[in-house]
Each structure stands twice: as C-alpha cells, then as structure tokens.
Amino acid sequence: MRFVIVTGMSGAGKRTAMKILEDAGYFCVDNLPVPLIRKFTDLAFNSMGDIDKVALGVDIRSGDLSVVDSVIDYLKLNGKRCEILFLDAGDDTLVKRFKETRRTHPLVAEGRVADGIARERQILSFLKKRADYIIDTDTLLVKELRSELEKIFVENKRYSNLFINVVSFGFKYGIPTDSDLVFDVRFMPNPFYVDELKRKTGNDKEVKEFVMSSPASAEFLSKLNDMINFLIPNYVIEGKNQLVISIGCTGGKHRSVTIANKLYENLKEKGEYGIKITHRDIERE
Questions:
Q1: Is there a single domain that holds both residue 234 and residue 106?
Q2: Residue 284 domain flag
Q3: Among residues 109, 129, 153, which one ends one of the domains?
Q4: Is residue 115 helix, strand or coil?
C-alpha cells in the first residue's frame, strides 16, 4: 500500500496534484473531515489488496489539523508507509492566483488575502516540516508539475525537494526579480556582431560553437558547473526547495542562451533534481 497525504498552501495546486495522481491510478479522496481521517486510513490499509495506491487531500478546510499529526504518528508506529506531499508557492504568487480566479481565501471571507496566507502558513508549518516532498509551484506549468509527480509517485525516482529553474536573460531588460544566483557572460565573444549569426540564437548550432570557441567560455562553464554542483547539496541541507539560476548577456539571445543550455544539460544529466529552462528574452528584438 502506498498512502500519500497531499497538502499545502491554498492556491499552490493541491487540487491539480490530486487530479494528476488520480490519472496515475491512485484512489483519491479530497477534503475529508478531520474526524474521519483515522477511520479512512484503517479502511484503506485493510482493503486486502483491492486498493494499493491512495492519495488523501488535506488542507485548512478539513478542520483541526493537529489530528493529522497524530494519524501520521499512528501509521508510522504501526509500520505503515505514509508519505506527505506539500505544495507551496511564494506569497506574491498566491495573492496573484487568488486575484486572477476571484476566489476568497478560506481563512478570510473579507479582508486581505495576504493576511489569510500568513495565518495559513503558520497553521500548516508542522506539516511542511514533516513533508517527504516539497514542491514549489511558483514557476511550474501543469505539465511540469505532472512530470515531477510522475517521477516521484509513478516512476519511484529519487527526489531531493529542490526544483531548479535555469533562466537566460538580457541585462538591457533587467535582471529577473526572482533570481537566487546571477551570472554575467557579457565577457564572451558576441555573435551579435557577426552578420550570419546576428539573427540566430543560442539554440542554433552555429551560435553555440561560436560562443564556446573561446577558451574563456569553456573555462567559465567548467567552473560554473563545479560551483553549482557544490552549492546545490548545501541548499538542499538548508531546506531550500526552489533555486533560480539566471545567466545574463546584453540582449538575452546568444551568449546567455548558450550557457544556460549547457548548464541545464549538465544538471539534467545528473537526474537528481526537478529542473526546467526558461529563455526569457530570446524572442525580443
């Protein structure tokens, strides 16, 4: 029996995650009243093999969540496998999602959504601490969330609770505001000044070869990979669950795209973390 408790911040994607797990063959029950959770877990584990994958959705609408804490302890004490998936997102992202959908936050029928989010974070903090998997959905599309959940709950791959977004950008358009690490590659040879390369991008073979033909580019990439490989495990130890690595050149079309792609390929080959790549300014003139 694989028993998963799906929880997290309102607006972070719990309902979408439950749908994805249902599509993957999980028996899903969402928003079950807290007093019934213990009874439900007993029924699920005593199903005599008729049900082997269960996902239970729990959030602040369910009631006094301290009961969930005791249920988790009860299951683990009796040698039953129980996993916790916690979906999270930044406050600004959550406020934006509530405004876009015109929904009210469950904790504030009237008043500021931000106040409800702050209260909810406090209430759910014990579940986040106990979570086996934390997924930050700030920058995730539904298909990317599906990919991450399938890795964990279908393909049974190792998951480190860190999702990495590698972003290429142009300094002339500003540094991405959500950047954790920013690297400037404007010292590399610039294809913009080569007529046959000017209209191409770092996704094109000719541009990649031009940028990487410089010994300085190859040395920088090697040092960058070493540093990122050193930093990531330490970020994981500190509990960081999202990392945005931004690579910038002047316009965000050539050098930054090339290096971002190289870094992405290196991290993806390791297969230890969730990862995506975004070329923010590649379509700009």
A1: no
A2: no
A3: 153
A4: helix
Portion of the chain with pLDDT greater than 70, in percent: 98
Per residue in 151-181, pLDDT (tens digit) is 888 887 767 678 899 999 999 999 999 899 9
Give percent above pLDDT 90 in the chain. 59
Domain that holds residue 30: 2-153
Residue with more model confidence, 188 or 148: 188
Query: How many domains does the structure of the chain reveal?
Result: 2
| pLDDT, tens only, 72-88 | 888 888 888 899 999 99
